[in-house]
TrEMBL record:
Residues 4-121 form the Gfo/Idh/MocA-like oxidoreductase N-terminal domain. Keywords: Oxidoreductase, Signal. GO terms for molecular function: nucleotide binding; oxidoreductase activity. It comes from Thalassotalea algicola. Residues 131-246 form the GFO/IDH/MocA-like oxidoreductase domain. This is Gfo/Idh/MocA family oxidoreductase. The keyword Cell inner membrane does not apply.
């Protein structure tokens, strides 16, 4: 089987997870890693048996043997790094949020298409077998007419304005870091229609949001969503119809889902993966690139723009509390 050569931007936690899951990808291999310090790149390369280490992102982008780049840096760096990789002729898989504004998202999409390269936001949740099974149940009418989506994602994050998650200069806050997942799962099942939002938010001492409750009307279908740095939330997604519902535990990294009719569980699905789950998106990216596609059918540029727009709409309501 043909394999794409991957280059990884960053040596942080999510990059480590991605590199670990590449062991489960049959159509790609890690060839290079780039970091701000050569010693960091070399240490990362040694741990994951990566052939090449770079102290310059641009140097890796200029490597003619690299086919596709994975970007796992803080949010505010995504646009510039994805742009530079695209201009170097590389396909790009960029961590969510792919940018920090709808304008940046549109610009990246336009640039990737003009350069003839593949670009996808790394919304790995959409590719997980349990999520796709839940969608099949919905599409088959197993829960009847879809009425509600309930989803939340929160973990206590001690306040420190210098850490990435609270740093205003790095687009810190729970909405872009964790809240993107409940919004994304609502969009996945409610077909990415524009929503009318009611928002209640609380803020850390530096003004970064650390708890957000969102109620939304998706053209008659409702979503109840939440995200928090203050506390651990239930971290379930519930897809609710007039005949039944689907429960998905830890939905953003889902390994299983259950179908209920009233209180009775009538079907259960569980995958048997040994990976974290990032391999599914990496496998799909390579399949799309080999097929000559410039964007994914699962995470289209339009869906990424929808996510950006919804998060901007939510943020615009923060100051109305």
């Amino acid at each position: 089987m043909n394999k794409l050569n991957w280059g990884i931007v960053s040596t942080g936690r999510i990059a480590e997870q991605f590199a670990s899951d590449m062991a489960f990808v049959s159509n790609g291999k890690m060839l290079a890693v780039a970091a701000r310090k050569l010693e960091d790149a070399e240490e990362f390369a040694s741990r994951f048996e990566i052939e090449r280490a770079y102290a310059s992102y641009q140097a890796m982008f200029d490597d003619p043997d690299i086919d596709v780049v994975y970007i796992g840096t803080p949010h505010t760096l995504h646009f510039d790094q994805a742009r530079d990789a695209i201009l170097a002729g590389k396909h790009v898989l960029c961590e969510k949020p792919v940018t920090i504004s709808s304008a940046q998202c549109q610009e990246l999409s336009k640039l990737a298409k003009s350069q003839g390269v593949f670009l996808m936001e790394a919304m790995w949740t959409y590719f997980l077998p349990a999520i796709q099974q839940a969608k099949r149940w919905v599409d088959a009418g197993r829960i009847g007419n879809l009425k509600h989506v309930k989803a939340d994602f929160g973990y206590p994050m001690p306040y420190s304005p210098e850490t990435r998650v609270y740093n205003k200069a790095l687009a810190g806050g729970c909405l872009l870091d964790m809240g993107i997942y409940p919004i994304a799962i609502a969009g996945y099942f409610l077909n990415n229609v524009n929503a009318d939002w009611y928002v209640s938010a609380e803020f850390a001492p530096n003004g970064v949001e650390n708890d957000v409750i969102m109620l939304a009307d998706f053209g008659g279908k409702k979503a109840t969503l939440a995200t928090s740095f203050q506390c651990k939330l239930n971290n379930y997604a519930y897809i609710i119809g007039d005949k039944g519902y689907i429960a998905i535990h830890d939905f953003w990294r889902a390994k299983d889902c259950s179908l209920y009719i009233l209180e009775e569980e009538v079907e259960h699905f569980e995958d048997s993966r040994d990976s974290i789950g990032l391999n599914y998106e990496a496998q799909a990216v390579a399949e799309d690139i080999f097929a000559g596609k410039l964007e994914s059918d699962v995470v289209t540029h339009g869906k990424s723009l929808w996510l950006q727009t919804q998060m901007e709409n939510v943020k615009s309501l923060f100051d109305r509390n």
